[in-house]
Design brief:
Strand content: 15-25%
Keywords: Hydrolase, Magnesium, Metal-binding
Family: Belongs to the DNA repair enzymes AP/ExoA family.
Strand order of the largest sheet: 3-4-2-1-12-11
Protein name: Exodeoxyribonuclease III
Shape: globular
Radius of gyration: 17 Å
Order of helices and strands: EHHEHEEEEEHEHEHEHEE
Cofactor: Mg(2+)
CATH superfamily: Endonuclease/exonuclease/phosphatase
GO molecular function, one term: double-stranded DNA 3'-5' DNA exonuclease activity
Number of domains: 1
Number of helices: 7
CATH architecture: 4-Layer Sandwich
Helix content: 10-25%
Structural class: alpha+beta
Length: 268
């Protein structure tokens, strides 16, 4: 694997009508991680469900029309696992991982949450369950001589540089102190031990943002959030040579409210 792209498609059937297909046909990625697919595989057009040149794995949500993640790989995976061993989220359509030679790659759709609602309670439960899994995944993979890459919509802006209007969002889901602290644990070398590859390559940048609301002129004003991440184990992160957001040229060119985030590694 040299290049991986992650993107929240905001409904794959809708994205397919707006330009996802031509984008996928043109991408040079070896792995594509999709989130918020919002469809069972049989509901997708055949050319989208099983695109030429790809091995596709889907993990739909038991809640119809919600969530759903997928992995597209040029090479057939050696193994695939849906979920992360916690019954509460086994059929939530929020996590799928695949083994490739020397690498475990995953697509994650972390709950977005909403302060004061059950959605935030769900998010808090997910965070509490997922961090121990990340710790264990890193340790198991290290013992096996494997690297790990967890890509997706993490629905948390970790730093002030990760969203335009951070002052106005200090009490909003996605930028709450406790959520940011959890992300710090994921990235702590002595805890989760993962590396935010985009930030590592662009330590002083504002953004680059990967999500813009469809409301108002958020995209045109670049009033966005950086919530789509490629989180790698340190050995793989050190091999990252390029990371960028595939931001659409204009608002009308968008096929999702997120933009693809692409990272290239030198693995030779």
């Amino acid at each position: 694997m040299d290049t991986v792209t992650t993107v929240n498609v905001n409904g794959l059937r809708a994205a397919a009508k707006k330009g996802y297909g031509p984008w996928l046909a043109a991408t040079e990625a070896d792995v594509v991680c999709l989130q918020e697919v919002r469809a069972e595989p049989h509901q997708l057009p055949e050319e989208i469900r099983d695109p030429d040149g790809w091995h596709a794995v889907y993990a739909p949500s038991a809640a119809k029309g919600r969530a759903g993640v997928a992995l597209l790989t040029r090479r057939e995976p050696d193994a695939v696992r849906v979920g992360f061993g916690v019954p509460e989220f086994a059929e939530s359509g929020r996590y799928v991982e695949a083994d490739l030679p020397g690498l475990t790659v995953a697509s994650l759709y972390l709950p977005s949450g909403e302060v004061g609602t059950e959605r935030q309670t769900e998010k808090e439960s997910f965070l509490a369950a997922f961090l121990p899994y990340l710790r264990d995944l890193r340790k198991r993979s290290a013992d096996q001589g494997r690297e790990v890459l967890v890509c997706g919509d993490w629905n948390i802006a970790h730093q002030e540089a990760d969203l335009k209007n951070w002052r106005a969002n200090r009490k909003a889901a996605g930028f709450l102190p406790e959520e940011r602290a959890w992300m710090s644990q994921v990235l702590d070398p002595d805890d989760g031990g993962f590396v935010d590859v985009v930030r590592a390559l662009h330590p002083d940048a504002t953004g680059p943002y990967s999500w813009w609301s469809y409301r108002g002129r958020a995209f045109d004003n670049d009033s966005g959030w950086r919530i789509d991440y490629a989180m790698a184990t340190p050995g793989l992160a050190r091999r990252a040579v390029k990371a960028y957001v595939e931001r659409a040229a204009t608002h009308t060119d968008r096929w999702s409210d997120h933009a693809p985030v692409t990272v290239t590694f030198d693995v030779r």
